[in-house]
Amino acid sequence: MENSHDETMAHEVSAADAEKSAARLQQLANAREALKSSGKSPNELSMASRNLVLNWIYRWGYSTATVIQQLLNRTSAGYASRLSKQGWLIATPTKSGHPKAYFTLSASGLAEAERQASELLRYPEIDPYRVNQSNIRHNLIAQVATLNAINAGLAKGYQTERMLISTDTQPLQKLPDVVLHLSSGLRLAIEVELSAKWERDLDQFVLGIIQSLKIEDGIPPAFDRFAIVSDSQAILSRYSAAMQPEATLKEWQKNSRNHWESIKSETIPDWLIRKVDFHLFSRSGDSNGSSD
Question: What does DSSP assign to residue 268?
Fold first, then answer.
């Protein structure tokens, strides 16, 4: 009986190995076909992939192996490490271990990204330890949401927060984590919220969204729609309730003692909730952006 059981297990393992081998052969065949149909040499395709990664990290500040894997639509997550070994990227371990490491541009990578950029951006991450590791997961969720929209054909372009800083946004407008330029022509601002805001912080958050979406004195709004993304349904429900027409919004200012105080209240405009979407970021999506 034991021999029969061992033979069955060996057969199952052999079958699994055969399936993996067949899958690798199919991937290789697909890659060769893609190379043939592209009309580019292997070296040209390699440079295109490298430049795509450099530009992505230049715009976002940093990324991870799995996000880069999704960016390039590859089957393995080893490409970022390869660019690191070639001197284009710097891999820095995280304190938490999730993800294992984040990748920033090296001096050579930054020089190449700037050479190809249509607009120059500040890049403080040239010192990898300037990265605020407590914000890594927040940033990666924004990256994955952007890639999901692009890969689904919903967006044709994007602007990260650092790209928006150079534009003429008004002080009261909410500066989102990323703006997607949708295929429909609309500008969708995305804000990732992983911890709940309360009282003044929530009021100012909502006020910023109102200022960013409203038409005033014939001047078009900064964005056409807002999307709030969170991994907490409770946060989404709370924010949705705060943006309903019957909800009250307080305006705040500092008094003579430098303390914040409410100076007036107003009702949320009826149109706001129709221009804001709420999306629950699933754990499966999280694994795409925050594991290595």
Answer: P
Both tokens of 83, joined, read 């660019």
Burial bucket for residue 220 (CB in 10 Å: 0-12, 13-18, 19+): exposed
C-alpha distances in Å from residue 224, one per residue of 3, 156, 244? 67, 16, 18
Domain with CATH 1.10.10.10 in the chain: 40-131
Contacts for 173 with CB less than 8 Å, ≥ 6 apart: 208, 211, 212, 222
Residue range 40-131, CATH number: 1.10.10.10
SS3 of 102, please? strand
The closest alpha carbon to 157, from 116, 132, 129, 186, belongs to 186
**What is the tens place of the pLDDT at every residue in 175-226?**
999 999 999 999 999 999 999 999 999 999 999 999 999 988 888 999 999 9
| Closest by Cα among 206, 190, 183, 184 to 252 | 206
DSSP category for residue 226: E
- Tokens 């100076």, residue located: 263
For the chain, the maximum distance between any two Cα atoms, rounded to a whole number of angstroms, is: 86
Tallying the residues shown for the chain, one arrives at 292
Q: What's the angle, vertex CA 112, arms to CA 108 and CA 118, rounded to 5?
A: 150
Looking at domain 139-290, its CATH architecture is 3-Layer(aba) Sandwich (3.40)
Question: What distance in Å separates the CA atoms of residue 71 and residue 49, rounded to the nearest whole number?
Answer: 9
Q: Indicate the pTM of the whole model.
A: 0.81
Question: Where exactly does CATH 3.40.1560 map onto the chain?
Answer: 139-290
Helix locations, 39-123, DSSP H: 42-60, 65-72, 79-85, 107-116
CB atoms within 10 A of CB 129: 8
C-alpha 17/C-alpha 270 separation (Å) is: 59
Chain center to CA of 289: 8
